[in-house]
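Entry for the shared binder. Reason: the reviewer on the internal report wants the predicted structure included alongside the sequence.
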Amino acid sequence: MLFQVMNRVSQPAAVMLSWTVLFVLLPLCAYGRTAGEVLGELKNTRGKAREAKLVEGARREGKVVLYGTTGVDDMKEIFDGFKRRYPFLEVGHYRGGALKVYNKVVAEARAGRYEADVLESTSLTGFHLKEQNLLDPYISPSRDGLLKDFMDREGYWTAWFQQVVVMVYNTTLVKKSEVPRSYEDLLNPKWRGKLSMDDEDDDLFGTLLDHWGKEKGLAYFRKLAQNKPTMRKGHNLQTNLLAAGETHIAPWIFAFRPLVLKQKGAPLDIALLNPVISDPKQLMLAKNSSRPHAAALFIDWLLTDGQKMIVEKFGRTSTRPGLNERFSELALPDYLVVKPERLGPNSKEYAELYCKTFGHC
């Protein structure tokens, strides 16, 4: 997704060198240290004592700012819940797509501005922000109980919910007996011209290549391309077009939206194709945050009470077992997780292969 666009505008080595020098010289946060260094003082403090220290610092800071990709309506309720717990904190918010969030953070850093304290975006946004030296590790105590596939050891990213990728189909156009039950079933020539895919899903493409092996994976996708899927931009758009009967099947859609529409009467249903891909929504600490205590309070809360809200009320899928899932069929023992550390180093190659395979660039 993100890196497909980024990698189309590669920079010369000299420009990259100048950026490297720039980030080395960037000022640290208001405390004279990076956000991670400030919070590192609390690594041996737990429970109420730790929260009290964070609250003390956060009261002085007065505000926390999130740059994220989750919808504004859902996040407004999340912010209201956080402010009920910590009413002394103002919450600032910028919402955009993954690329817009990345570009805004990088552009502000280049200008010597550091507005964001907490970042919330895709795994690959996190990978590229870390490459730019704009993240600090933060191992929140609220990570306890999360599934291990949804956080890294160093603490650069922690997923507060996951987006389970499912195949969605129009129940009016596709008979139940004909519904594909595997990736191989999608290769049937009868689906030629009846599939819809997102032209920015190279991260899902790359995750399957990594899982299956490059040779096997490319052979599969080249056969899938022979069925002439319509390449569109946006999972929500694809879901709406499916509901309207303009296409039959979309193999890669985040599950919560079609399931919500199904509950409202839309002619949609889902199928889980093995392996089931999970695209986590990651939380990250901005390295040069001037409000590290407020940032830590916010991340800690999002991983606990905030996660409970986003899962149980808004239908996202948890990264923590035991919550009351609105869509329990998505709570599986195993997922093929989109991981920054695995996918990121090969992002340019996967973006180019995806574009070449499906011919949409």
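Summary line for the report: The CA atoms of residues 162 and 280 lie 4 Å apart.
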